[in-house]
Amino acid sequence: MTTTKEIGINTEPFVVNFGPAHPSTHGVFRMRVTLDGEVIVDMEPVFGYLHRGIEKLAEERTYTQVIPLTDRLDYLASMSNNLAYCLAVEKLAGITVPERAEYLRVIIAELQRVASHLCAVGFFLNDCGAFMTPVLYMLRERERILDFFDMVCGQRLTYNYMRVGGVSQDVPDEFIPAVKKFVKEMPGWLDEYECLLKENEILLARSKGVGILPKDLAINIGASGPVLRASGVKWDVRKADPYSVYDRFEFDVPVGAAGDCYDRYRMRVEEMRQSLRILRQAIKDLPGGEVRSDVPHLIRPPVGEAYGHVEGPRGELGFYLVSDGSIAPYRFHVRAPTFINLTALADMMRGWKIADAIIIFGSIDICMGEVDR
Amino acid sequence: MAMPMLPPNWPGNFWAHWAIFAVVILVFVLLMVMFFIWLERRAMAVMQARLGPNRAGPFGLFQPAADALKILIKEDIIPAKADKLVHWLAPVVAFVPAMLIFAVVPFWGGALLADLNIGILYVVAISSVTVVGIFMAGWSSNNKYSTLGAMRQVASVVSYEIPVVLSLVGVILLAGSLSMQQIVAAQDIPFILLQPLGFLLFFTGALAEINRAPFDLTEADSELVAGYMTEYSGMKFGLFFLAEYAEALAISAIVTTVFLGGWRGPLLPPWLWFVGKVVIIFFVIVWIRTTVPRLRIDQLMALAWKFLFPLALLNLLITAAEILIWPAASLWIFVPVNIAIAIVLVILWSKFFKLGWGKVEV
Questions:
Q1: Is the Cβ pair A41, B144 closer than 8 Å?
Q2: What is the ipTM of this complex?
Q3: Do the chains contact at B296 and A206, CB–CB below 8 Å?
Q4: Could B44 and A132 be called an inter-chain contact, meaning their C-beta atoms sit closer than 8 Å?
Q5: Among the ranges given (A281-295, B36-50, B150-164, B325-339), the one the predictor scored with the smallest mean pLDDT
Q6: Is any Cβ of chain A less than 8 angstroms from the Cβ of B292?
Q7: Which residue in A254, A278, B135, B274 has the most C-beta neighbors within 10 A?
């Protein structure tokens, strides 16, 4: 395609602000996009509209009181945040977790991954222009998972369910049969979504080859999660550094090849299938017993530092804690996967059109609560 | 088949005829638009596993009326740096052509405002005026989203006009007349069977012209917020909204008249056939909207020029050849032939044709 400059028409690039209040910014992200007609010449991300100082707030609270704060990071995957933080504290204080609690954590974390990916895929397809239909279908299934979380902790968005040394309470009796039923039905729903849009000509034209994140760039920026795996790097914290009881389950890590928007979308769908596989095994092996080890109310970990990380739905979610021996963390740092994945955004967008910018942004699947903290 | 026809000047006086049909068209358009808004929201809700409007009146039927009332009492905002006159004029320029189209649409044999002998040419000419209003809106709003939306609209309408007109020429050849009335009268076999390719091309092109999904780039809400309408509020926004649905109604009415045999059909009264076919076509439009993602602007252009345009030319050529070589043959012979040709051509084109250009080096 020839640009207007080559034809000899004198044009000037102009700047459009996408966000912070825009239908497709998934929160309050702002992109200062320099456009030449419809083509993106440059993009400058502007963060910080949702900054609440969570890292500083955490230093003023006891180790247990920080857990609700982690809920407010990635509010679409609060359970994963809880888990990552608890792992870090357990590492720091040398606390062991009962077997049953480990399994419950895996079940909850995988349900959370499915819920989060449903959202991600739905809104990605919505950004592609499939007006509301896929997102509403997928929210319908997500709703069922939220009902499960409601069962175990009484909350639907900010759960505060995991505790240092286990989980806050055992699951009710109806929980396991309900999850079993869900795990049985969900593959059918996934197949339905797949046959509705997977091979759609317009979707392929829109997302195949668009917004490519090359393998070396993905590694250099420290990307993780589906974004990294879509670029062809087989790296999953659950396999690379198995935490909890993930080493006991059999599952595959789907890997893409092209690193385009379509691959990132595919990764998420495949991961949902793998999560269901893990869920099936975890429910089968779920042991009885305690769900929380004997942990004092005020945890005073020894002086030192620890890094606990999980494979969250959006990538490697890590908490870095420094203890000075007191009841509150001396330093609390979040390695937010979407913040790091976002660093490549400008490189992925340059040269594409406005419409592509929206789907490239959507395919990274960010959550502003986590980016701005 | 004897068709019930009203005399051309019914009820006998020119002015009476004019007044009656002006009122009929106004009432018809407004009522149908209200019904369409309700139908779209309701049908979409069902397809998207939700309820849709169900509070105002039975099945939420009064929802459009409630919306209209709300729009009327909203504050009318003109942006500080807008071109005020153009900003004010744009909704009118966009809405009027959509109404004017109905002057030549026959609701019944003879029941139309003006039986122009160039009816279909008039439709094509008038329907492309709307884009001027939209561009005025985009330009005068002094908003980048509006301008981008309006530019997209102009580009797509100018491109899609050509395949749309060419696909109608096949019908005109078959009917031997440009008058909408005569076209309906010629449809002993509905032209959708004789011109399947023409129908597909016209319908696709028309969707792009009235910017309905998957060609709704003008107001792509995930990209351009609301496109050219971003800076409009109150009744001006209402007029654009009305224009959009009136256009959808007009396209449905034209497809009905030109391809589906208009008011003709057994048993039921003619006007009911007409309205029923219009509603079915509109339902298909809604159905498409809930199903497919949106195209990108370069893909939209590629579709018009690489796909629709050559196919429309081929369709015209084949139709002309058929009429020229076998003028006396029964039209029923051409039905399977033309359907087969349409299928072969569409498959052939989809094999060696790529949508869009992709990345630009900057």
A1: no
A2: 0.78
A3: yes
A4: yes
A5: B325-339
A6: yes
A7: B274
pLDDT tens digits, one per residue of A226-238: 888 888 888 888 8
Gap from B294 CA to chain A (nearest CA, Å): 4
What was the pLDDT predicted at B1?
43
Tell me if A3 and B220 make a contact (CB, 8 A cut-off): no
Closest CB to B223: pick one of A24, A42, A131.
A24
Specify whether the CB–CB gap between A55 and A40 falls below 8 A. Answer: no
Give the A window 4-23 contacts with B, CB below 8 Å: 14, 16, 22-23
Number of CB atoms found within 10 A of residue B299's CB: 23
pTM of the model: 0.84
**Environment class of B81 (CB within 10 Å of its CB; exposed 0-12, middle 13-18, buried 19+):** exposed
The C-alpha of A58 sits at a distance from chain B's nearest C-alpha, in angstroms, of 36
The sheet with strand A30-36 has its strands ordered as A14-18, A30-36, A39-46
Contact B150, B217 (CB under 8 A): no
Nearest to A22 among B49, B214, B225 (CB): B225
Q: Any idea what DSSP says for residue B308?
A: I
For the stretch A315-354, pLDDT in tens is: 888 899 898 888 888 988 888 888 888 888 888 888 888 8
Rg value, chain B, Cα: 21
Residue A109 near residue A83 (C-beta atoms within 8 A): yes
- DSSP-assigned letters across all residues of B118-142: THHHHHHHHHTTHHHHHHHHHHHTT
Q: Using alpha carbons only, give the angle B281, B284, B288 rounded to the nearest 5 degrees.
A: 145
* Domains identified in chain A and CATH numbers: 4-372 (1.10.645.10)
| Contact residues for B120 (Cβ-Cβ < 8 A; gap 6+) | B104, B168, B171, B172, B178, B179, B180, B183, B258
